[in-house]
Amino acid sequence: MHKVSFYAVIGLIVAYLSLHTDCAYAHPIHQPHWTAVENKFFIKSGRQHTYPKEYLPVIEVRNQHELGKLTALRFIEWVQYNPRGVVAFTSGNTPEFFVKFLDFYKNNWHKPHVMAELHSMGIKCKNFPDTRNLKLVQIEEIYPMSESHYKKISNYIRRHYVKILGIKPENLLLMDINSKGIISEKGMNVVFMNGKVDLSIMQRPANSQLERWQQQALKEVQEFCDLYENKIRSWGGIDFFIGGLSYNGSIGYTESGVSLNSKTHIHRLDYEAAAISSKDLGGIEYARGKIVITIGLGTIAINPKAVMILMVLGEAKSTSVRNVVEKKMDPKYPASILQKFPNSRMYATYGATKLLDNRHTEDVRFKSKHGWIHQQIAEVIIEIALAQNKEILSLTENDLRSYDRGCMLLEHSPKPLPSILLDVHNGVIKKIENGLQLPMRKFSTIIHTGPHHDDVFSGYYPLFDFLAYKYKNNFLYFTSGYNSVSDNYILSVLNRASDGWIDKEQSIILHKSYEKALQKFHGYFLRQDVEKMKMLETTIALKHLVSIYKIKNLYDLKHTLRWLKDEYFPNKQPGDLDVTEIKLLKGMIRESEADELWSIRHISTQNIHHLRSEFYSGSEFMKTPRYDVDVIKFITLYNKFKPDIITVADDSESALTPTNYKVLQIIAQGSRSNKMAMNDKLQIWGYRTIWSRYKSAEANIYVPVSERAMEAQKRAFNACFNTQKQSSFPSPFYNGDSVSLTTMTQREQFKELKILLGEKYFANNQVPELRNAAGFVFLNKMSLNELLRRAEDLQQAINLEESYITSKK
Fold it and tell me: Are 67 and 313 in contact (CB under 8 A)?
């Protein structure tokens, strides 16, 4: 009798089930061979080696910090045996901690605790590997861009990878294409006067000398692409590749639908890519119309034995992760090409993998192994009801059996299905009742916290119909917000100020208080006098200018204005870092927008606190919040107001904007060492901003919103948040202003509730607020312990950053 291994038996069972069940399981194209480093992190993740529905091996990590550490150690593990290999690394925010950990290990290699960690990973070389003879390939570049632009990707590579690894200049293959040809001869600003490229010009005769120059420039770019591709091939292809995953399933800037055999080429930035690039280019108005030079999918695949890693950070990319991992290789999801290769991997945070079906089912099974609790049951039932587009009470056993998690619930059901459905149905109604019962008592003290100045607004502004009058409201804004104010917006505000107008307004600009100006705004808003609100916006901006530059008279004010309009902004490249004074001006304008908003609700500036946290900077990698600088400000104000309720932007580290999570860390860190932990009556309300949203099962307070309230929300936004009306830095998921996205989300949340409870529940309801609802705001009331679980302790990130900063001195 032949002996058959346990794993072989399991394999046969899985194969049999895939053929003889209704579930169409996929199978990994290749079995991953985890390296020593990968195996350490793989074991820590607690996941299986492979899953039936996944085509690409995945290692999950807790957060961005761990993601960078895994990638850095895997690279060190590889490069110790391949010191002359060809490497290509992604840029941007995702590899921040990959960069920092490379730097950390290089500068701390011989410290005992570092050596011990390296040895535990199977890395036993005496010194940081010699990386000087590596060859480095740049993956992509936006065009046209000045060679000196700080945000140019080739300059990013020099600042970080070349500097840390010490790669020799002759081994760099960078996309520096302006040093010769027509751009070098005529100048980029002459050939592409508005910084935009019309690719159609290559398909028709030129109509002017300028168009002939542009045709020549594009011809030279295409020739550059051919030479670039040939150079990579002459090196034998890329041996170690680290790429990022876009929201549409592409690797970096490769476009959806591109051939899986594509070579280095150019293509136009689509809306999503332009929105993502807007932060680097000074606004989407500068990103639109640009093109990108990118290596092709066939270029990445020249060496089929290469180590190919996708670093993925963020719940916002979970749909993209599912498409790339669970669907067969398809040009629609270009990153799926990695499924072909034996050494391809995805390293991803838990948020990014949350939609992977087998893993989600495994999580449900783990949570329910000691018996189902109501929250877990509700998540499964609500998920199935929405997927089936059916009311909760009309679900059947067949509906549940169409889903793995539904099958699990039926197999280990704590009660009959009708009783389960009724419990979940009533639970949804209870959440609506929670929303109708706000506020709980008159004159409670509440602290509203916002990472940015429009976060509270987009999170739950309709609630201020009663919050403004029945609560003692205090607002804490953590960042100055200057990164979201474009140069074009500042110029539009300053250009309204003619010399004659300044002469007439000199008293309020130079002498009257800021509060007097806000009082004027309130009156103009009530009358909806748009023109006067605009001019008051300029008045307030000039008051800030007077404060920043300590201006005493009209001559100095007009001189400063001329300098800004004629010299500073025209001579600055969009996207380049501002001088300190202009950062302050932009931030104060953002702060004024929040002050104007709450003046509508008769809330004094004495109750509005702009903390200007120092972690928020224009630097490439946002700083880690510091206890003695950022956390202590929050603690001081918390102790001053002694709130009954505090609101927090409840975004995980894997959310689209890192600022929100860093503020969550500040609040959590403050609670760990402060009286908050002793206040068992404190309520914490989580809310979501335009960058993410609660699922129906995640929130526990549903507040109905009327059409009138949403119209009021739009009026307030259009009057107060002028920097964001035509946002230069929009969401990649929505091509429009943020208030439209906010109200759209509120309507979609109402639509979900109508599916779950049925439209008649609302149409025939005796409660007027429900009968007249047009949308819903979702909140999540949580305990302090829940808040602490959501935010990692700051100390490990602080320690790493201190090491990184020290090494740069």
Answer: yes
